[in-house]
What we know:
Largest sheet of chain A: none
CATH superfamily of the largest domain in chain A: MetI-like
Distance between the termini of chain B: 50 Å
Low-confidence stretches of chain A: 1-14, 79-110, 128-143, 159-164, 392-400
CATH class of the domain at 321-584 in chain B: Alpha Beta
CATH superfamily of the domain at 321-584 in chain B: P-loop containing nucleotide triphosphate hydrolases
Oligomer: heterodimer
Low-confidence stretches of chain B: 1-19, 581-587
Helix content of chain B: 25-40%
Amino acid sequence: MAIDLATLPAAAPAREIPHTVSPSLWTLAWRRLRQDRVAMVSMAIVAAFLVLITLSATGLIAADWSREVGVNYAPPTFMGPDASSQHAQTEATAPAAEGETLASHYHSTIVDPLAGVLAEIRARQGKPPAAAPGGAAASPDATVDPLADVMADIRAGKGGAVVSEARAATLPFGGDKWGRDVLKKTIKGSETSILVGILSAVLATFLGTLFGALAGYYGKGVDDFFNWFYSVFSSIPYLLLILAVAAVLKQKGLVTIVLILGLTGWSGIFRLVRGEYLKHKAREYVQAADAIGASNLRRMFVHIFPNISHVVLVQLSILTVAFIKSEVILSFLGFGVPVDVVSWGSMLNEAQNELILGKWWQLVAATVAMATLVTAFSLFTDALRDALDPKLKGGTGASA
Amino acid sequence: MIFRKDRRGDGGVRDAQTAGDPNAPLVSVRDLRVRFRLDKRTLFEAVKGISFDIPRNSTVALVGESGSGKSVTSLAILGLLPAENSIVDRKSQILYGGRNLAGMSMRRLQKLRGADISMIFQEPMTSLNPVFTCGYQIEEVLKLHMGLTGNRARKRALELLDEVGIPDPSRKINAYPSQMSGGQQQRVMIAMAIACEPKLLIADEPTTALDVTIQKQILDLIDELKRRRQMSVLFITHDLAVVGEIADRVVVMRHGEIREQGAAREVFEHPQDSYTRALLQCRPQLDRRPMRLPVIDDFISGRGPQHIEERVRGVAPSDPTILDVRNLGKSFWSREGLFGRREFKAVEGVSFKLPRGKTLGLVGESGSGKTTVGLTLMRLHEATTGQALFEGKDILAMSSREFAPYKRRIQIIFQNPYASLNPRFTVGQILTEPLTIHGIGASPQARADQVFALLDRVGLPEVSFYKYPHEFSGGQRQRIAIARCLTLKPDILICDESVSALDVSVQAQVLNLLQDLQDEFNLSYIFISHDLAVVKYISDQVMVMSEGKVVEVQQSDELYRHPREAYTQRLLAAIPRGWQGAAAAPA
Lengths: 400, 587
């Protein structure tokens, strides 16, 4: 590319003229944003989440989220001693019998409560390192007493010491089916969901912007091609497309879901960016750039792009929210992250079964985390759009 | 229907009040102060305590450059200022028929608007609703304010369209705004404004967006309506020439203050204020051509205009030709039907010679193809036919690679300095970029030095290097655009309406700059403009275009003295002549 960005900002003029730093349009937008209280609060919340997931991604917190620190379904401490918690406590006092107790309890109340859990256990055992290194496949008759077997396997895998490890009867935020701390699980789940959301939004934004820029700038045949491509993409139902991509990519994993969301989600931003390029390429400042001999690529990305980048930024923000939700839905439906990875979606999926038993804390934890982030992010996006909207700023004709 | 009775009752009161004292002014503005809240702490005083009267049956012109507060004043009279960030001072009074409009409730004000006081705007295209027919929009006004419905409203709308001079009103009443020309749209706007027989018509730059010939028609129409309907007109404009044609009284505003007011004759013949004098003389005049145009500073500082000796213009046959355009044509095609294409010839058979170091003026009304000629020569559009010989080589037939070295030698300055500079670049980046692209200058330092020198040459401080375009005024931005062209040391500069969007005083400065640069670097200009006075001032030779074809090419003095073609004569007759013309009429 003939774009020489490094020399463009005249970083080292021969004589330094004393000057005050002029506010660029970005600086002005930032000043507007800072005046907006809602924006600042929501930005702080989003930032807190980002810090949290950075810490968890680097293993500083919640690295041991999969350790079973509490008894199964350890209730949150702030709960009063009602029936279910007492039940949990009895389980805690008699750990040897827990499986049977549970199983018989389920059998007496519900027709086949473990079907879902069982499927997952099998999947777990299929994954070598995490769950069952002994490779003991669950035999069909294990259905009667599935938990005891698995628990034994896991304990054996983790070494004898773990067996005698004291398990807390209650946890501050409750425990899941395996006795894992829901708080840590939620943090780890946030990491997965937000990371998937951001990465796939970045991918989709990149594709949409690139295609939109090419289509809008060159027009004619190029535009026709991308429009045709876009129409084909948007004519296939979303879920079907995801299934197709998932089938092509075979294995499940974070990369897969990022690719799925990114490859299917670019069409909205494509349309917007294409429209902006159509509008801007006829603007006088672009013609002026043509007149001084700027190449096509230079006009496209050095001249036009900064002027439409606010649209891209807002879209990136909107897409991130949308993709976080998409990830949750996909994982909830079982198309999402693999079972050995926790995300908000898989937590909600587990909560579906737990809720029947009255174990509500995993559901609440995932929901609260997700609702807080998505609301804050959406509010921030709105404020961002207000701050960046050049129409609010008079006199900048070229960006209006 | 209740509303209708109400209206009548109100009208009765109004007549009683206004009929009270026939010599009292229709509207008295007393100590009007308007402030705008820019952000939490800063207030900007747009109008700083002005007072003036609008007498009955007369035209008052409110003259000023951008930022003078003239439009804010007119909006304050109608109560149309944005409520969220504007503050009208409590002591301000706008007296109309004994009532103070400044303190009036929104509902009562709404009844006055459109009925007693109405307004027309600069852009008829955006003021009319594109999805309703013109007839419907006029009928709506009649319905709301006069209570007329059905056939009676229709009949009245037809009468109004006829009155404002729309040809074949019975057919045009069903036309949509997009099916009418700009002039006709403005006529429809006027028809709507006078539908309820207002006492006061506020016209905010009603002719600025129109061609001279149309401008003339609209000015005549407003003048005629004023006399026939016995109403007053508050005419807001930046153009003193227009004011001279129609105003009875003139109010000159600058920076929110009134600099001078009085009868038009007084203001034009014996201007008291230095600013008024400057405004009157900054504008190029058809009968004089000083070496440099006077600028406002000359008057404010009391120096008086400098270099007023007459400049001689014209092209001699011996002048070397730098650009020889032959039979230039540019067509656009629109799709028609399934396979058909319809050709629209924007430019057809244009030929001219541009002598080195001279200026060719290109005039014509909108749609005459003059801008297309400029863009085609720059190869921002590809020509359909013809040749353009630049130093003997046809630049239109070159491949884009061959053209690249020639590209820097022909540069263009666009009309709108607000749109032609990339708002995300600092001025330093804008001016360094062409040098970087063409590899001019050995190092970034050398380039920056060159840019500093250029900034100095176009009269901008060196600190501008670090600033963004939005920190500059229109005139300063146009200087930046000129400096950007100069970075490439071009031979030909195409000025596409380059001074049309600027205030009169700034226009003079930019024209002087262009003239100085021509004297210094022997540049050749193609000066495209709809403003015949400006073209007369700057050009050696003038080419008149109409509907894509050349009407005539003449030495500029000759053209203005003895236009040969009927079209040129019409064009010249429509130029507002300022006070002289109006003085002649009543005498």
